[in-house]
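Student: I would love a firmer grasp of how sequence relates to backbone shape in proteins. Thank you; the sequence and its tokens follow:
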Amino acid sequence: MSLFWRIFGLNAVVLGSATALLLWAPVTVSVPVVLTEAVILVGGLVVMLVANAALLRWGLSPLDRLTRLMTTVDLLRPGQRLPAHGGGEVADLIRTFNAMLDRLEQERATSSARVLLAQEAERRRIAQELHDEVGQSMTAILLALKRSADAADPPLRDELHQAQEITRESLDEVRRLVRRLRPGVLDDLGLIAALTSLTSDFATHTGLRVVRRFDADLPALDPETELVLYRVAQESLTNAARHADAERVEVALTRADGAVVLAITDDGRGIRAACEGAGIRGMRERALLIGAALDIADAAASVTSVTSVAGSVPGGTGAVGATDASVAAAGAGTPADPSAGTRVRLTAPLPSKPRKQP
């Protein structure tokens, strides 16, 4: 039924009911109208208007649901749809809107993938130039300063040693920036080794306590999936250090049914802002790149203490355990406050055809 005939039918029901009451009800209208008759007529009009409003509200409820969805839909949270039952103009409108969302989500995912891939290529280029040009130049400066310090007199030698230390610290900072731009260990040794290096460097530079919990039977993943997991972990740790006022962070990578789950939980002040910043929206765009689900919420439970977790590194050698030096120094085993903190959970589906181990 079209929207026109639905509204016409609802009004016809109300008007027909009012006419039937006038025909068969023991009510007469005098000339002039007496007070009791006027009260009855006004009361009947009110009842008719209320019934008409209620029926119209029921008849137009699909449009109300569509309007609410239009105002809240977010392409970074795909899958929001309305059920379209039967035929008619309203159902056609809902189906058309759902089809438009399908096209927009597909186009958004495609464009985001192109942007992110171009961004990673630019990161790789900048990291390579920093490593090859700036790193080698600063290494040459260090060697020249060392030779000059060895041949200089004591007063000048101390100044050259000081300049040498400043240059060495700058070189270390350049190398750290290179690792953040493009982690070479991710390509060489795999995701577990890259996350281990990331969390160790994070604990060293921020002073936060970090606990790692990695499953031993993690499957081999696509390079795109590993990169998205690494970038989400990187952004989550950065947010915890900058905004959460946290003291302890747990990074967990586990295997679920047909998926790999990355969870970063801190004991900070939790999610308070109503809007999401560029960092969180960037994580959602990366999640769409691999068809993953990203959930960010207040931590509902305390982080369980980890005593010993060991697993082989995919694509490399060695083992990772929660009792290694970084976790021991971090004081593993201290539970987080269950009423505070933020949990970032990324559920990435496993590839249909896992890549072969090198």
